[in-house]
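thread: overnight batch results

M.L. [08:02]
morning all. the overnight job finished for the chain we discussed friday. pasting input first so we're all looking at the same thing
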Amino acid sequence: MSRVSRAKERLVVVGGDAAGMSAASQARRLKGPDELEIVAFERGHFSSYSACGIPYWVGGDVSDRDELIARTPEEHRARGIDLRMRTEVTELDVAGGRVRSRDLESGAEAWTSYDKLVIATGARPIRPPLPGIDAPGVHGVQTLDDGQALLDTLSRTAGRRAVVIGAGYIGVEMAEALLNRGYEVTVVNRGPKPMSTLDPDMGRLVHQAMEGLGITMVNDAEVTKILTGEDGRVRAVATEDAEYPADVVVLGIGVRPETTLAEAAGLPLGGHKGLLTDLAMRVRGHENIWAGGDCVEVLDLVSGRERHIALGTHANKHGQVIGANVGGGYATFPGVVGTAVSKVCDLEIARTGLREKDARRAGLQFETVTIESTSRAGYYPGADLMTVKMLAERRTGRLLGVQIVGQEGAGKRVDIAAVALTACMTVEQMTALDLGYAPPFSPVWDPILVAARKAVGAVRAGGS
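M.L. [08:03]
and the structure it wrote out:
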């Protein structure tokens, strides 16, 4: 089927959250409605919202759902974007240059042709096919609709026992949210320690801190089924060895790229099943198709390999790059170093670059050092402990990764390491960084610099 000729170009965007609507908005800034028609499809009830904020809304730190919404559908439409809510794209016809959509309210289907296409379908929560997984009281937390459904359940549930399955970022954040809601929280984790994005020795610190908060941690435990009561609602989570009573269950197992449509259309996917793009975020081998956000794989600048990282920061950057290119400008997204930060109550957790197993997988030889320091000068009130782990390449001393676990002031220090990784700095070069100092903010030697100095020594000893 040939494309229908039109007087102006049409951009079709599949997905109405961070990447998709950032792309649409940026393209609209560069080209007006007379030059570019923009049609966007979103199957949910909300557009341009912060999924990362859902645990803090559930936990009560954010009082109102609307505070998480950056731009409503009405605001997008007022800017000349035809955003069609509760409309799901069901097929991509790449050869014909069109998409098929279904109105989720009426069931009506239609084809919409495009000159340029942006795929921003996000990621889907991992939901293992366990008996009872779909029982009332079992919740994922990927969208605002999910968050509202969980809050509705919490408001109706008389019991105060919660089980979180998974101990990654979402798992530990939801454990905090439920703890703040007054629940007895058990976290069931298949790994040896929580936060598999950290090395096990650093994950052990997170484990100890979570148990110190009153959270029951169950590691090395595979969930086998969700048990239900006579009313059909969840009553417990079962592993091979035990049962953990639950009035509500939250899934925090992680996410996978939502590329079902892309795969069916024959678009290129990587090892993590995410779409593969070039530096301009254009889908490889397709001149008029772009993709961004949680549905794509990105280049790891440290290991040189493709990886999947679902973060709103990346999604918004992807959207800006895509919108610039669609709108006739030029922009690129060079890659990431894998920076992430989170917290559980007063404990801050941060990482960037490679873990030990990542470095081994990449064939790198490395040295590791771990130091303890404080967030402020030791004599200044409120100085809190933090632990910093640093990886450096043997012989060259190139920084490979940093992990930080500690109290207030620990988490954002990872940004120093993220910049150093992006600049391909050695740990010796890092020791000369001119970081800000005053007793209320850091010791004379910032913890990052203390770790870098120790890493220099390890590199020198390892190379002898």
